[in-house]
Design brief:
about 120 residues, about 45% strand, five-stranded mixed β-sheet, five-stranded antiparallel β-sheet, mainly beta, 10 strands, globular
């Protein structure tokens, strides 16, 4: 599955939400992607449009113009039946350092983070 977005919104640690880390975007076609994790949980929660699913064992790769999210085949339901989601960034407005920190917080101990920055 592929999405294109102008911005990724990232919150590494939201103290108003029990220190939850959040990564979110809205695609140019109106689709919404949300990935969250509370620091005391072993799973990551993914919401794609109206569909929510907890997942484990994510692999996420971040580059300057691309975010690739890969899930285990058993968790493909989280991404509408696909085992990966590729989000293309169409502008330079995203704070990639904040996205990177957020992804590290989300994946710590439960997934793999790869930086191509």
């Amino acid at each position: 599955m592929q999405l294109t977005t102008a911005l990724l919104f990232a919150t590494p640690c939201d103290d108003e939400e029990d220190n939850m880390a959040t990564l979110c975007c809205h695609s140019d076609k109106g689709r919404m992607f949300l990935m969250t994790r509370y620091p005391d949980e072993d799973r990551v929660d993914i919401t794609l449009d109206d569909h929510y699913a907890p997942v484990e064992g994510l692999k996420v790769t971040l580059g300057k113009t691309r975010l690739l999210i890969e899930v285990a085949p058993l968790d493909a339901d989280a991404l509408g039946g696909d085992d990966h989601l590729e989000i293309t960034l169409s502008s330079d407005g995203t704070d990639l350092a904040e996205v990177e920190e957020t992804l590290q917080n989300i994946l710590k101990g439960t997934g793999t983070y790869i930086s191509e920055l």
